[in-house]
Amino acid sequence: MYTLKLTQVGNSVGAVFPKDLLAKLDLTKGDELYLTDAPDGLRITKHNPEFEHQMSVAREVMKRRRAVLRELAK
């Protein structure tokens, strides 16, 4: 378990992540984190689950409509 310290950043509040946690999550300065509701609280992830869902739908459409997309590309 990790504890994050909240600190004042201008008019906002930021969280300070320990170096080993950043390495474990493969995060660097400027990366984005996404918070989603989970049954037991909040989930913090590096990827955007909504975008991932949209991409999976797009991949399925491209797979089914391969011939149409090929014609449109000409």
Automatic annotation (TrEMBL):
Source organism, top-level taxon: Bacteria
Q: Which SMART domains match?
A: SpoVT_AbrB
- According to its UniProt entry, this protein's organism is Caenimonas koreensis DSM 17982
Q: Which residues form the SpoVT-AbrB domain?
A: 7-52
Cited Pfam families = MazE_antitoxin (PF04014)
Keyword annotations of the record: DNA-binding
Taxonomically, what lineage is the organism?
Bacteria, Pseudomonadati, Pseudomonadota, Betaproteobacteria, Burkholderiales
Annotated protein name in UniProt = AbrB/MazE/SpoVT family DNA-binding domain-containing protein
Q: Which Gene Ontology molecular function entries are recorded, alphabetically? A: DNA binding
